[in-house]
UniProtKB/TrEMBL annotation:
It holds the Pfam family DUF488-N3i. It comes from the Bacteria. The lineage of its organism: Bacteria, Bacillati, Bacillota, Bacilli, Bacillales. It comes from Heyndrickxia camelliae. This is DUF488 domain-containing protein.
Length: 120
């Protein structure tokens, strides 16, 4: 099946979300655990605190952020990456993020990374 989707955690829950996984290091403001309807929270796949602070969601830094974040994913390769890949083989998986910018954030980098890993 191998179906990954990306969605803002503030967007409405949908039955087609499948397995919902928060991929932020910090808990999103104003969201309760009940409202989030999470299956998992994978903090370790989020960018490091240093990288997140450097990026500061500035679109002009997104290309460099993407390279640095992918390097982090390759170097640390947390167990959650393998879990995401395994879940993505069998289920629809929605990666949830809290950033306001719906184009320049880690979830889109992560989904590309996971899709590449699934192909290999």
């Amino acid at each position: 099946m191998n179906m990954f989707k990306v969605k803002r955690i503030y967007d409405e829950y949908s039955d087609d979300d499948g397995i919902r996984i928060l991929v932020d290091r910090l808990w999103p403001r104003g969201i309760s655990k009940e409202t989030a309807k999470l299956d998992y929270w994978f903090k370790n796949v989020a960018p490091s605190t240093e990288l997140r602070k450097w990026f500061h969601h500035e679109p002009e830094k997104f290309q460099e952020f993407t390279l640095k974040y992918r390097n982090e994913l390759n170097e640390h390769n947390p167990i959650e990456i393998q879990q995401l890949i395994e879940l993505g083989k069998e289920h629809v998986v929605t990666l949830l993020y809290s950033a306001k910018d719906e184009e320049h954030n880690q979830a889109f980098v992560l989904i590309d990374y996971l899709q590449e890993k699934l192909k290999n």
